[in-house]
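Quick one, tokens below:
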């Protein structure tokens, strides 16, 4: 089986590396060709165009930014007609509506489509410990579970296409809410001169604690948001996806809109490509 990995950015690269380590035959495509060199040295074939990757692969793993990028890569006038008999496994974070629309378009071209968004970041992708959520029918899940186990030990079946995307957005809304909530409390602790160690000690013992607080504490204290695993711009993208999907469902999104403003202000500070914990800079400079 030949596996195409389309999009070898922060997350796509370690996914391709996992497959190569497990001796799968991989053909990789990335818009910016220079990002493919490390994969070529590990034995991946390199495709200069998406068409080349689609033609050589049986299954396509997509780890692209958003639905627009997916369309430009697999549903452009050159590539769309080559999807016949190909299985597309979409692993980026997109909305349930976009995922279902893309599913229909892929099926309309004679291809197969499932979604498998992930929770976790580069270290988990490298270690094969991502939480993989699968939106598919049960026979697709059975067919592709073994492959997805390369990325996470126990891929979870969620339901039909769209359900896993919705679950992923629900989780990323929590990333935004927990991080901004912690950052605001830390801002008060700092500005009131309260001992941060004591704040953390009490917080860790309480029901309010989330492990992400400790993961982001030092970055926030040092104002060091370099070398991101998940940049601010992607959190903004995901908050926007959540807002539009939640509004269609008639949910009150006022709280998240405030957080969105905060992330937007972080972007305006030039921190769009920094780690998303940089939203602390928009709270307490
Ligand atoms: N980073 C994380 O921790 C994390 C965790 C879970 C899920 N995700 C999700 O996974 C997806 C990928 O994230 P990432 O962190 O790997 O982002 P990334 O490093 O920015 O990679 C994005 C990839 O999409 C490609 N791309 C974007 N627009 C394109 C276009 N118009 N045509 C062709 N290729 C295009 C990029 O190509 P270039 O290299 O040429 O720009 C790159 O390969 C996103 O949906 C993200 O939300 C990320």
């Amino acid at each position: 089986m030949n596996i195409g990995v389309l999009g070898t950015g922060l997350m796509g690269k370690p996914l391709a590396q996992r497959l190569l380590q497990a001796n799968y035959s991989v053909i990789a495509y990335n818009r910016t060709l220079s990002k493919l060199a490390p994969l070529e040295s590990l034995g991946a074939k390199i495709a200069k165009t998406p068409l080349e990757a689609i033609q050589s692969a049986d299954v396509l793993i997509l780890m692209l930014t958003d639905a627009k990028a997916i369309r430009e890569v697999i549903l452009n006038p050159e590539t769309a007609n080559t999807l016949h008999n190909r299985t597309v496994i979409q692993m980026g974070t997109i909305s349930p509506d976009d995922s279902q629309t893309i599913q229909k378009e892929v099926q309309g071209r004679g291809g197969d489509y499932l979604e498998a968004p992930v929770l976790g970041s580069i270290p988990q992708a490298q270690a094969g410990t991502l939480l993989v959520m699968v939106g598919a029918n049960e026979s697709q899940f059975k067919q592709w579970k073994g492959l997805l186990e390369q990325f996470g030990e126990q891929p979870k079946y969620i339901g039909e296409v769209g359900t896993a995307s919705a679950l992923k957005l629900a989780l990323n809304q929590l990333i935004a809410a927990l991080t901004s909530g912690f950052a605001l409390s830390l801002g008060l602790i700092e500005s009131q001169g309260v001992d941060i160690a004591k704040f953390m000690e009490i917080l860790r013992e309480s029901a309010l604690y989330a492990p992400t607080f400790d993961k982001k504490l030092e970055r926030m204290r040092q104002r060091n948001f370099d070398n991101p695993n998940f940049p601010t711009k992607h959190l903004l993208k995901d908050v926007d996806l959540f807002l539009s999907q939640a509004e269609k469902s008639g949910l009150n999104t006022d709280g998240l809109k405030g957080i969105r403003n905060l992330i937007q202000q972080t972007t305006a500070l030039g921190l769009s490509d920094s780690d998303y914990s940089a939203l602390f800079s928009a709270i307490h400079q």
